[in-house]
Amino acid sequence: MKGILADFQPDFSYYEYPGGSHWYSNESVDWKPLFDYFRWHLRKIDTAVNNIDFITANPGISASYYWTTIYQQQQPLEYSRVVLTRDLLSGIIEGNTENVGVLQLVLKDFQIGQSIQIKVDSLQPLTHIVRSLNESLFIQKNENAWRVIPRPSLQEKGPHRNGTFKEAFNHRMVYVYGTKGNAEENKWALEKARYDAESWYYRGNGAFDIISDDDFEPSVYAERNVILIGNAKTNSAWSTLLADCPITVDPSGVSMGNKRYEGEDLGGYFVWKKPGSDIHSVGVITGTGVNGMRAATANQYFAGASGFPDYMFFRLGMLKNGPQELTDAGFYSNLWELAQPK
What we know:
The chain is α+β, with helices and mostly antiparallel strands.
């Protein structure tokens, strides 16, 4: 490992502690060369950084580097990159981007009243006059041109809430299990919540609240994400939390905009914007019938290396036959819209 690292990155500190522990012990953490290395690599102040080379796969996890933010992507979870240079005296920002839909540029280091030019991706330059202290400029790429836009609404995707099913497990999530199905469906919902609680305790050394749909009061949990277990029939909180969601799951099938998948063996996971909030989310663990619910029982979404899109649906047969039983999966647009079939 040291040899591979040294081939391309000479700036590192390396030490082997015979018999040392990988976990939280003083030989791993309370080690002077580690803190010396940090001291030698102090982060530069913003005004000292005029060249940026920044890559992210998800603005919801990492979006900003000094004076630029990848606010929205063109293709979700593909790598996005910005390579930019600025000249504060000449008033120029120039460079290239990859897979960037909306870019935020912080202009606080330019002078008020200064005219600046933004030359990105060898496209038509933009001219902007700095009007205030701490001003940010948002530019959006449409086909082969950049244009200045107002700050995107917080109801759109962005660093504050960018989607993917796993994002719903932030903000001290609370599990809400359904009680309006038949005895078997209700039993599954409660057992699923308990199963996830045990997994979360084991994998993350954490805990979350579990309540029934009858006990769910939106105002009580206004500052928390919600994980809803069940479907539109079996969980009475569905109509409150997902009234404007383009995805609906009932005992006979799944509706996704203009698409409809029939069957009682469909299971799935998806995320949606929590109503009344700019940052919180609702995660849904669902199934059309008991067979579909059982298909959704496995919880690899707690595994650190797992990744999930905004929505994912599959049939019970996936447990035996694998990906060929995947029904639908994908991402909403930056406006939280489903792509409609052509």
